[in-house]
Amino acid sequence: MFSKVLIANRGEIALRILRACKALSLQTVVVYSTADKDASYVTLADEAYCIGPANSSKSYMNQAALLFVAKVSGAQAVHPGYGFLSENAAFAERVVQAGLIFIGPSADNIRVMGDKIAARNAMLASQVPCVPGSKEALGTDASSLQAMAEEIGFPVIIKAAAGGGGRGMRIVHAPSELIAAVKLTQEEARKTFGNSEVYLEKFLQHPRHIEIQVVSDSHGKAIWLGSRDCSLQRRHQKVLEEAPAPNVDSQLLTAVGERCAQACRAIGYQGAGTFEFLYEDEEFYFIEMNTRIQVEHPVTEITTGIDIVQLQIQIAQGEKIPFEQADVVCVGHALECRINAEDPNSFVPTPGQISGWEAPGGLGVRVDTHIHSGAVISPYYDSMVAKIITHGKDRKEAIEKMRLALRETQLSGILSNIPLHQSLLEDQTICEQSVDIHYLEKLLSESV
Ligand code: ADP
Fold this sequence. Notes:
single chain, 448 residues, alpha+beta, eight-stranded antiparallel beta sheet, 15 helices, metal ion binding, ATP_grasp_subdomain_1, ATP binding, lipid biosynthesis
């Protein structure tokens, strides 16, 4: 059992974790870079320590500094949030070696899921459906590569085992391009990720991105908390998310959700996690598992009434998940708009001082943000400054509430992508159908 938590992150998620800790009567320790010294959560925390300059490699990524703060403050557990060190197996290991609790899965589980070949094989072992592809790292023998790709069927995608953030992937349309593409991707993977292993998958041409939220405790209890659709993406970055994923057969979804929970039990997973799938022609294909809390977790919280961050902490305390699968009911529909400090047309980040901020409100409106009037958005970090979440009895009502919430939102001093969200919520296809992962980029290319 622990009573003091070190929050090893910044921005809205630092505040989100702080709130969860307070609700559980836990002491909080936050860290901040010199650029974040005036952040609201710094004054809300029980203790706060400056860990370095704005550059995150010298502050939020500085493992030694974080462990030092844990020691000095007497924190007994570390919550990594998302990004930064949240999926760094070596950090999770160091935290445990220092006698602390890592609020998340074991370093071994993080490591397996960080290797896409190992992750695929772990999923196949639990009958989680995967994209047809190679089970092992590709060799260099031309004829066996050709035979494998022909069997799967072109187009195929070559992916780095250690890839992440949408990098280390190459689509191959014709057999004549295959060998060169494999070699090039291996070389790129070696340079970018320090691991040249690549594998091959069928390239799906018009999939949706649907993911399943899971929680799993140290007593072998694993539960899935429903689905999210995050198909609206630009450059592999999610822009607008929703729960539940619309227009998916509920029996099919239940079958996949149960497989995900089963996979958690099989690997002894502990904490919250997300299974990401591509969904095409009524079939799910696993692509990766995120072993951390995700940006879009509030749409699941608001539709299930379950506080996932509190649950992460309770699981790390060794507690049993206090409900059963049958108790998880998805009520209504939720949307989340990621508000980024960026030019809505060029997408260039727009750091600077916020001169005015007024958040929307009303029943079924949630705003997760650390910003306030006078806050300075630093160029050093992610441009996401707020998340607006709406909840309605159905998708239509959630959309209407979001339109109003965006109209109510006042953000001045910097440009933001609020106008982009407003136009997305006026797009008939988005409002009435389910779009694929390429839809937003196509829409943007047509509008220039
Ligand atoms: P990363 O870890 O870099 O995010 P993912 O495996 O999650 O890598 O893939 C990122 C994105 O690449 C997916 O969201 C999808 O847009 C695209 N992608 C990956 N695999 C495939 C595939 N087999 N077919 C079509 N698109 C794919």
